[in-house]
Amino acid sequence: MQAVEGTPCLQFPLPPVPVINPYLGTMEYCYPIIPLPMHDPDPLPIPGVIYPVWKSNLVPAFAQIWKLISQGGRWFASIDTEFPGTIYKSDIGRLHDPRYKYMMMKENVNDTNIIQLGLTLADLHQNIYTWEFNFSDFDIDRDRQAEDSIQLLKGQGIDFWRNKEDGIPSDEFARMCREVGLLENRLVELTWVGFQISSDLGYFTKILTGQKLPDDFEEYKKAERIYFGDRVCDVKDMMNSFPTLKGGLNNVAEKLGIARVAGKSHQAGSDSLLTYLTFIKLSSM
After folding, report:
1. Measuring CA to CA, how many Å separate 187 from each of 98, 158, 261?
2. Which of 90, 24, 98 is nearest to 62 (CA)?
3. Which 8-state DSSP code applies to residue 129?
4. Residue in 60, 24, 64 with CA at minimum distance from that of residue 46
5. CB distance 112 to 139 below 8 Å
6. pLDDT on residue 80
7. I need a labelling partner for 101 at 20 to 30 A (CA). Which of 40, 91, 92, 269 fits?
8. CA 244, CA 254: separation in Å to the nearest integer?
């Protein structure tokens, strides 16, 4: 497996023209672009490849997603987020209380900005497709952060300068999610999967609403169900049925004999893929 960038294009200094996006059904004003080479500019993604997504190739990435989920059927969507660390530490002894757990997640999500979101889509035939969305929301020079987490992400290859310059504004990502029908089970039956998924869904919901998460736990759960439905699986919770499985994603995957076949830990695309493979393994045990 490998990571690939978008197809290079030639752009001419012509005035913008109205274009109907054939995949999304929306009217867009853009400069005439000729893809190189001359073929379908948004081909189906190759299974097993992690596609880095930036502002420049956001529309083609979502066109690929639309081509897949518009086929219908049942799909799995595994997600992972990278963010600048945990600002507020939880009292471990109180994490059994869902409202306390939500309060701590909310405070951390509201006071920090997302860096990456990894999305792995898989059908029932185990065709697996992965994208890694890089956001421009986080400003390393101004925004709140945990220094140890920033150093860890730098060591794993996160380029904060490139995210700031070339990353995706989260409101554009939210609009594309809605337009292609990724949310609310509009086109396909989706089961959402994550490892300690509450924070992932928290950042995702914050992006989709364009607002901070609400104080009221029930209000948040209502919004979460609207966007993601009732089929949400947390690999961390699944581990409770296997007393010998402890620790984080890397440790669990290693104990189960699952290799990280692409990317590095703490890269959202790679972690979303490893999370899905771990989920499948646990589901079969």
Report:
1. 31, 33, 30
2. 24
3. E
4. 64
5. no
6. 97
7. 269
8. 12
Residue 119: in which H helix or E strand, if any?
strand 116-123
State the Cα–Cα distance between residues 66 and 26, nearest whole angstrom.
13
User: What letters, b where the CB count within 10 A reaches 16 and e where it falls short, cover 37-59?
Assistant: eeeeebeebeeebbbbbbbebbb
The answer to whether 90 touches 108, Cβ cutoff 8 Å, is no
pLDDT tens sequence across 200-230: 999 999 999 999 999 999 999 999 999 999 9
Give the DSSP per-residue string, 219-255.
Answer: HHHHHHHHHH-S-EEEHHHHGGG-TT--SSHHHHHHH
Partners of residue 232 on adjacent β-strands: 192
Q: From CA 106, how far away is CA 156, in angstroms rounded? A: 26
Name the residue with higher pLDDT: 3 or 181.
181
Largest CA distance in the chain: 63
Cis preceding linkage at 43, omega within 30: no
Q: Distance between CA atoms of 64 and 224, rounded to whole angstroms? A: 25
| Nearest Cα residue to 197 out of 76, 89, 87, 93 | 76
- Residues 207 and 170: beta-carbon distance below 8 Å: yes
Encode pLDDT of 22-42 as tens digits. 445 555 544 333 333 334 556
Which residue in this structure is represented by tokens 């009732």?
230
Query: What is the rounded CA–CA span in Å between residue 173 and residue 169?
Result: 7
First to last CA, the chain: 26
Q: Measured on CA atoms in the order 46, 50, 53, 58, is the torsion positive or negative?
A: positive
Q: Locate tokens 């060591």: which residue? A: 155
- Token readout for 69 is 């989920």
